[in-house]
């Protein structure tokens, strides 16, 4: 009975844990289960130790035999070493609890000591110096042909960044008009059996090259060699590199042809990476994915993959410059209407083509002075997205960053209004505790749900309210009001806009439409033009919040974001009277910039 009481108390405690404790529950559950399972052992250690016999099969926990199903007493049997007579006056020995088994520590959980000087040098530039010679032979992973990233702090406060290749253990740096020069090694790892001979700057790593506490890099877990890559299989496979704690710019090139969840230090920095989009996105060359300011801790940086594609091809790691101020970051949460799709476009497609997420093209409106990490994941609602990717926001973000959340579409199918509100509120609270500024967005209206808020089908030029999605849009507005967060009401803005343009225009331009067959292929997901429309709304509203100096309930303001210029956008459409009309609105100008592609001169192929 004592066993069952303790078990119920343990799980009763866990049932009351709030959402923010969810990421720690697996550890709690393991400890509670071990503790609960140990109770019968404690009871029988004192009473049953003399028999040495058991008719049931037992589990071994710390060398104490514990019956797996029912004790001898529950079977109606009396243990042979327990007397049926009245107890004597002699005191009964108190059972001594065996120590609880500690979970085995993973190699990547063991902190590594790192010689900072082997990974980073900052040199003062004497006044009037034009060329500086730096010895790099003692830096980490030094090899002939190694490449080093150089960052110069100029006299006028500007920065210059470039790569240099070593020669005889040295690099020659042009430091004209510079105050300081920062040098750090560029790690270029290529995995598996290569079809081309690796370049001098590349380190070829085979599946058999295992990570240990004695080396600087290697694989952990079960890994198989592929052509131009490796395959992660089994439990928790990963690639680990010893580096000082800090921020790194990481470029992954995949060897597979499906989508991947990309994790750095076990936390998401990329969702749906490599997923092929519909609406004319064809062919899938090796997908490049660039992660800016990934946080490495405890002396290592760890790459792991999830979802369908577990095949990394190569990895480039660069230290984020410590001379340059860190950019403000936007972390994006959303579903398939936010996610990125591949292959990336080389030219703008016609309206109605190329499935695209608004998070993929937000960088067209916000300059590269702001970093954007799109964690949109197809099929997710607020709850499931939280479980997949929110840990990445908390791990990699810094105070002053922004967290833009758009859910409310899939929540109708997989959740409820109240559960959605609960998870949104929890994420807002946790972000604020870290100093990250949350921004809530209602989802865009769509041609698929061209209905009133009561579910009534609407005519061509009636403003859509989303049908059953309307309750979730309302729930998001309620959370924003209750929490005092910034709100971008994309649903209201697109409702007004779409009601003017008409359902046909929206379906044929902002969703996936086949002009050849005249078929509406998909009236929920966004085309390239539809994604740009939503991204421009979000960017413009952020710009307006920043310009107005609007504060949230904690007094936080949108500051430090850099945008393109504002212009009048004109859309030509056929109005409800059949006449050609113009829809005009003030929006941030869009300038093409490919999403998540390394800005550095060369990434590993």
Structure, explained:
The chain is 22% helix and 28% strand. The strands form 7 sheets. Strands 3, 5, 6, 8, 9, 12, 15 and 17 form an 8-stranded mixed beta sheet that branches. It has a 5-stranded antiparallel beta sheet with strand order 10-11-16-13-14. A 5-stranded parallel beta sheet has the order 19-18-20-21-22, with helices on both faces. Among the domains are: 1-49 and 56-75, no CATH class; 111-191, no CATH class; 327-595, SGNH hydrolase (Rossmann fold, 3-Layer(aba) Sandwich). A hairpin with a 2-residue loop joins strand 13 and strand 14. It has 10 helices and 26 strands. The protein has helices spanning 2-15, 25-48, 358-361, 382-396, 411-414, 417-434, 470-483, 490-501, 503-509, 528-548, and strands at residues 58-61, 64-67, 121-124, 131-135, 147-154, 159-165, 170-174, 178-191, 203-205, 217-226, 229-242, 246-254, 260-264, 267-273, 288-296, 300-307, 312-319, 329-333, 371-374, 402-406, 437-441, 486-488, 512-514, 519-522, 566-574, 580-588. It is of the alpha+beta class. It is globular and about 75 Å long.
Briefly, what is this?
The protein has 605 residues and is an alpha+beta fold. The protein contains ten helices and 26 strands.
- Total number of strands: 26
Shape: globular
Rg, rounded, reads 29 Å
Relevant CATH superfamily of the domain at 327-595: SGNH hydrolase
């Amino acid at each position: 009975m004592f066993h069952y009481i303790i078990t119920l108390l343990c799980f009763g405690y866990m049932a009351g844990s709030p959402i923010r404790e969810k990421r720690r529950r697996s550890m709690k559950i393991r400890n509670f289960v071990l503790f609960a399972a140990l109770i019968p052992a404690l009871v029988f250690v004192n009473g049953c130790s003399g028999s040495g016999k058991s008719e049931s099969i037992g589990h071994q926990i710390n060398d104490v035999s514990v019956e797996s199903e029912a004790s001898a007493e529950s079977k109606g049997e009396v243990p042979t070493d327990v007397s049926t007579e009245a107890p004597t006056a002699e005191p009964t020995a108190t059972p001594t609890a065996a120590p609880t088994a500690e979970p085995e520590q993973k190699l990547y959980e063991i902190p590594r000591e790192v010689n900072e000087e082997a990974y980073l040098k900052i040199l003062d530039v004497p006044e009037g110096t034009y060329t500086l010679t730096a010895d790099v032979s003692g830096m980490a992973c030094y090899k002939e042909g190694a490449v080093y990233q150089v960052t110069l702090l100029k006299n006028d406060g500007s920065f210059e960044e470039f790569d240099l290749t070593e020669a005889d253990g040295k690099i020659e740096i042009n430091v004209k008009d510079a105050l300081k020069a920062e040098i750090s090694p560029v790690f270029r790892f290529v995995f598996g059996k290569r079809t081309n001979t690796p370049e001098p700057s590349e380190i070829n790593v085979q599946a058999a090259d295992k990570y240990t506490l004695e080396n600087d890099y290697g694989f952990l877990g079960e890994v198989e060699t592929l052509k131009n890559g490796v395959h992660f299989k089994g439990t928790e496979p990963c690639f680990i590199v010893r580096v000082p704690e800090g921020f790194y710019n990481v470029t992954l090139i995949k060897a597979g042809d499906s989508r991947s969840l990309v994790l750095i230090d076990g936390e998401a920095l990329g969702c749906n990476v490599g997923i092929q989009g519909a609406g004319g996105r064809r062919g899938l060359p090796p997908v490049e994915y660039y992660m800016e300011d990934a946080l490495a801790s405890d002396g290592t940086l760890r790459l792991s993959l999830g979802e369908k594609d577990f095949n990394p091809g190569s990895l480039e790691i660069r230290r984020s410059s410590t001379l340059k101020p860190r950019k403000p970051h936007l972390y994006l949460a959303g579903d398939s209407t936010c996610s990125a799709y591949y292959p990336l476009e080389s030219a703008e497609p016609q309206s109605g083509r190329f499935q695209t997420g608004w998070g993929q093209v937000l960088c067209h409106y916000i300059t590269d002075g702001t970093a954007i990490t799109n964690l949109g994941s197809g099929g997710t609602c607020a709850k499931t997205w939280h479980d997949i990717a929110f840990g990445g926001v908390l791990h990699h973000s810094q105070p002053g960053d922004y967290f833009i959340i758009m859910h409310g579409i899939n929540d109708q199918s997989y959740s409820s209004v109240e559960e959605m509100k609960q998870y949104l509120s929890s994420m807002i609270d946790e972000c604020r505790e870290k100093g990250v500024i949350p921004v809530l967005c209602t989802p865009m209206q769509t041609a698929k749900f061209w209905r009133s808020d009561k579910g009534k089908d609407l005519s061509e030029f009636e403003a859509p309210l989303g049908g059953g999605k309307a309750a979730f849009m309302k729930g998001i507005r309620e959370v924003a009001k209750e929490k005092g967060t910034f709100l971008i009401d994309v649903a209201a803005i697109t409702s007004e806009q779409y009601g003017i343009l008409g359902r046909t225009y929206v379906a044929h331009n902002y969703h996936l439409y086949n002009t050849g067959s005249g078929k509406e292929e998909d009236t929920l997901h966004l085309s390239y033009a539809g994604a740009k429309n939503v991204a421009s709304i979000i960017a413009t509203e952020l710009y307006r919040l920043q310009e107005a100096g609007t504060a949230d309930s904690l007094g936080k303001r949108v500051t430090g974001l850099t945008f393109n210029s504002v212009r009048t956008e004109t859309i030509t459409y056929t109005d409800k009277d059949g006449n050609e009309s113009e829809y005009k609105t003030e929006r941030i100008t869009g300038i093409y910039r490919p999403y998540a592609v390394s800005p550095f001169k060369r990434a590993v192929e």
